[in-house]
Amino acid sequence: MAVEYCLFHPQGGGQPADRGWVDGHEIVPARDHDAGLVVARSAGDLPLPDFTVGQSVEVRIDLAARRTYAALHTAGHPIEAAGRAQGWTHAANTHFPGQARIEFTAARPDPRLDTPEGREEATEALRTYVAKAIAEDAPVTWEYDAEGRRIVHLAGLHSAPCGGTHVRSLGDLADIVLPTLKVKKGRIRVSYSAVHRDFP
Questions:
Q1: Residue 29 falls in which region: left (phi positive, over 0), alpha (psi -120 to 50) or beta
Q2: Is the dihedral of CA 88, 91, 95, 96 positive or negative?
Q3: pLDDT tens-digit series, residues 47-83
Q4: How far is CA 69 from CA 14, 74, 75, 196, in A?
Q5: Distance of CA 191 to the CA centre of its chain
Q6: Which of 4, 19, 127, 180 is deepest in the core (most CB within 10 A)?
Q7: Dist CA 40 CA 156 (whole Å)
Q8: Domains of the chain: residue spans and CATH
Q9: pLDDT for the residue 149
Q10: pLDDT band at 35 (very low <50, low <70, confident <90, very high)
Q11: What is the DSSP string of 118-183?
């Protein structure tokens, strides 16, 4: 089953695929790179039934999982902005639960990174930056640029090409934890966790 517009988010943008169901059949969304569509495939051994064009179906998304992934993905943006404010360059990221991290490189040596105390000082600077961004509740918006890339904006704080799921504003994030950063193979690794604040 291929659709031009799909409610399910496939794995990509550094985050896992949505979990969901179509007419009670559990599916796994995946991107068909040839067609450019998101395709829903059966999550089990049995194939999906043949659906017809125009047929009404019930579609459900595991909202708890979606909110978890969106919170982790969105939290990566202010952390990236905080690292850039330290003079670091974004190098890599992943937003999977239990593995979420942003990695940076530094064009110039940062003496703080040479000692445990300095690394904690640098991490505290990131925490302060992120906490301020959350308190200001910057809206999360997006638009397509002239090249067709989806650009996500955090008000005037940060903009980056991004295809993941996001919360509506940074105030939707809670319990963001940044353990003391690590330096491995020349990269500054900032691990983190975050959750979606409950809707009112």
A1: beta
A2: negative
A3: 777 888 888 888 888 888 889 999 999 999 999 999 9
A4: 10, 8, 10, 9
A5: 13
A6: 19
A7: 36
A8: 2-61 (no CATH), 65-196 (3.30.980.10)
A9: 87
A10: low
A11: HHHHHHHHHHHHHHHHHHHT-BEEEEE-TTS-EEEEETTTEEEE--S---SBGGGEEEEE-PPPEE
pLDDT in tens, 153-184: 998 888 988 878 889 999 999 999 999 999 99
Closest alpha carbon to 131 in 176, 86, 166? 176
Map tokens 């979420």 to a residue.
100
Contact between 101 and 188 (Cβ < 8 Å): no
116-136 and 63-85 helices cross at what angle (nearest 10)?
120
SS3 28: strand
Sign of the alpha-carbon dihedral angle for 198, 72, 168, 174 = positive
Q: Which residue in 95, 162, 172 sits closest to 138, CA to CA?
A: 172
From CA 84, how far away is CA 75, in angstroms rounded?
Answer: 15
